[in-house]
Amino acid sequence: MIRILLLSSMFTYVYGANLIMMQAIWRHGDRAPGDLPYPKDRYNETYWPRGWDQLTNKGIWQSVELGIWLRQRYGATVLPIFNKDKVFILSSDSERAIETAQGVSAGLFPPVDDRVWESSYLRYWQPTPIQTAYGTIDALLRPTKVDCPAYDLANEQEESPIAAQINSEYGQMFKWLQNTTGMESIDFWNINDLYDIQRELDHNMPQPSWLNQVFNGTTIMDHIRELKRITRNQEFNSPTKAKFRGGYLVNEFLKNMEDFKANKTEKNVMMYSSHDGTLSALLYALNVSNDQLVPYTATVLFELYDDDTVQLFYKNTTGTAYPLAIPGCLQICPYSNFLALLENVRVRSLDALYSLCGTYNSSTSSRAVATTTTPHS
């Protein structure tokens, strides 16, 4: 009988079966913008110590906190220590995702007993191997980067009327923002650039007063946030688009469970470091999205138990793992039902994905995986 204690920092439950496998996928931690949000913005790259697009100190700490949280949740079951035969960590080739995986590993696997190799300022750190899909098109952890004409067509058909509606509804605000920000034009397709202002707000960088001006009863910044939510979710929020962008990742989690149950692998902890679009695609593919933006270090958890049941959880910025139920099943879902209910969205191979996308090419069907260790040399 599994015993799970109530801790202040985590969601807990009592369930009468033993956890035998855990899979987790998270978004990277807080990062700097990729560039100036708009031409007249004054916070250039010198305001971000690690540079554009890089993990911030805040993001590093978020990563370590996630690792600590995972250790509290799973340390008594499937993650007592790091064991290379049982634990696998894969990151996209993005530096911020790799570094987030390093931070998670630092919080999750502090050295104990005979693994303590240094007694002073590195006392609580040990190197952990992180795999990456370096130098390849990463259809698994960066699905939005995959060239997929069939997806583009489906997205365009659904997006066009929404874009037209928003451009009409917000046309006056967009024109005003052009003059205020120095941008050449603003519409449905590039309003997201201004969302990088939120990253500055997250770092307490004072902002111009125009962000608090009101348009149709709502501040400009709140409109920018809502338009970001609409435009981001529009990329994934139908069964067709979700399958194109999330079906291959769904297959990864299901195949991992199938291989473990068939004794094809000893690995019972699989963890993935990725991006907001990756998690959004997955949540829509599972049909459990809450239609909100995915925050930094948000995590989806798959848990397999020895009574042949699967449980699904979502951890956002709180210390709570919220239970999710895929349509057609209870939150504690029989393993066979879980697989059957997700069969239609599952994309079983890269060849199948490229065929579905209309871009099949045998030369693109290989997927190289390189290894790095933490920290970088």
Automatic annotation (TrEMBL):
CDD domains: HP_HAP_like. It catalyses: a phosphate monoester + H2O = an alcohol + phosphate. SUPFAM superfamilies: Phosphoglycerate mutase-like. The keyword Signal applies. It comes from the Eukaryota. The keyword Transferase does not apply. Keywords: Signal. Transmembrane segments: none annotated. Pfam families: His_Phos_2. Residues 1-16 form the signal peptide. InterPro entries: Acid_Pase_AS, His_Pase_clade-2, His_PPase_superfam, Histidine_acid_phosphatase. GO terms for molecular function: acid phosphatase activity. PANTHER family: ACID PHOSPHATASE-RELATED (PTHR11567), LYSOSOMAL ACID PHOSPHATASE (PTHR11567:SF194). Belongs to the histidine acid phosphatase family. This is Uncharacterized protein. It comes from Caenorhabditis nigoni. The lineage of its organism: Eukaryota, Metazoa, Ecdysozoa, Nematoda, Chromadorea.
